[in-house]
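Homework help board

Subject: predicted structure for assignment chain

Our instructor gave us this sequence and asked us to write out the predicted structure in token form, then describe one feature. I got the tokens but I'm not sure how to describe them. Can anyone check?
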Amino acid sequence: MLPGSRGRASCLAAAVVLAFSLRSGAQEPPRAFIDGTEPGWRTLGESDFAGVNGNPDTWTWKDGRLLCSGRPIGVLRTRQKFTNVEMVVQWRHLRSAGNSGVFVWVPDEALERLEPDKLPEYGIEVQMLDHGYREQYEKQSGKKGDWFTTHGDIFAVGKSKLTPFPPLSPDGSRSFPRKDLSRGVGEWNHYYVRAINGELRLWVNGEEVSGGRSAEPRTGYLCMESEGSPVEFKDIRVRELP
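My token output:
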């Protein structure tokens, strides 16, 4: 080896490693993580919500967190209606196979005289489903659980309408997430929802995964869902948009 060639070889090898690292890093898309602390955001607390069809102990607040027993099935609504809005919320299931979600754009008529153990017949659901749900569903129903995912499905409920973004569920009614990003039972998940001009998009733990457009109706309440299993929410924040 010629004098000085060892040093030049070492520098070249280091440059190659650095270039490879930069190229590898460039393959990872940047994450748009929004935590709701920017100007215009406000935190929703106990006084911002109203009961609909639950029991006194269905929804309770403790240390700024919203706890849901899961019984009876039903919803808790915001006191305010929204048209164009952003929302962030953290959630975690406390039992395997837990089922919950947030309903967006729920009108008055869907909540009037809503009986316990029933859900509104309007709204766009932002689903929060634990990974154990598929196994439970297939065991109890004897059917294949291929019509839903546990990573943030978006779909119209009842009489509401939505054109979901692909990829789609087998029947075309749901926007399936493009990536599997949600965490399992006992772990906190972060959702960022942007609902504007009838279009709704969902980010799960920092990445956009699903959504839809042409929603009708596109004004209404935000509703937290109780659906049979204990679930916990925190850092519920909203920002109204023009």
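Reply (TA_rk): Your tokens look well-formed. For the description, you could write something like this. The longest helix spans residues 5-26. That's the kind of observation they're looking for.
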